[in-house]
Design a protein that fits this description.
By secondary structure, this protein is α/β, with parallel strands linked by helices. It contains 10 helices and 5 strands; from the N terminus they run βαβααααβαβαααβα. Pathway: Cofactor biosynthesis; coenzyme A biosynthesis; CoA from (R)-pantothenate: step 5/5.
């Protein structure tokens, strides 16, 4: 069983940047919940078949792929439909995350779950790494990256778990309020720690 480091953080915290640096510098395998969430609703999947069964074929684009805009509109206007969608897709996403984790070959595997706190998914990890930024930095980055208003950015930040809730589940923390150059020294130190933790676990099971 691979040693699993769960990586999480709020919007615009730098999760992708951090995960990419672990991969580029230390060849660490990455399992990304957001990517899997798209995979489980691709054509000819159980997830997409269930959505079509629920909402009809007009939820599809002409090429047979899910029309995400239409789906968002449907679940936005109906809490019941949103709950149904979550109940249908979350088990599929979780199962696929576990499957991909099992296939990992690196010293440890990074399991990137943006909504880890909200979903209580820290149970899938051996260690939780939180990318921590202050709220004002999140808002500014979101406005610049997504070309949205301050109000829209603030609404997104407020819709997620707050900073204190994420830090409460953290075993390790990366501070990312500054420039990307400040990340690599933190990542190098954490890589050594994660390798040591994995070795300790292996020795403990011998």
């Amino acid at each position: 069983m691979p040693f699993v480091v769960g990586l999480t953080g709020g919007i615009a915290s730098g999760k992708t940047t951090v995960a990419d640096l672990f991969h580029q510098n230390f060849a660490i395998d990455i399992v990304d919940a957001d990517i899997i969430a798209r995979q489980v609703v691709e054509p000819n999947t159980e997830g997409l078949d269930a959505i079509v069964g629920k909402f009809g074929a007009d939820i599809l684009q002409d090429d047979g792929c899910l029309n995400r805009r239409k789906l968002r509109e449907k679940v936005f206007s109906s809490p019941q439909d949103k709950q149904w969608l979550n109940d249908t897709l979350h088990p599929l996403i979780r199962s696929e995350m576990a499957h991909q984790v099992e296939l990992a070959q690196s010293d440890y595997v990074l399991l990137v779950i943006p909504l880890m706190v909200e979903g209580g998914l820290q149970s899938m990890t051996d260690c939780v790494l939180v990318i921590d930024v202050d709220e004002e930095t999140q808002i500014t980055r979101t406005m610049q990256r997504d070309n949205v208003s301050r109000e829209q950015a603030l609404n997104i930040v407020n819709s997620q778990a707050n900073r204190q809730e994420r830090l409460a589940i953290a075993d390790e923390i990366i501070k990312n309020n500054g420039h990307t150059d400040s990340l690599l020294p933190q990542i190098e130190a954490l890589h050594a720690r994660f390798v040591a933790l994995r070795k300790n676990r292996q020795q403990g099971t011998l």
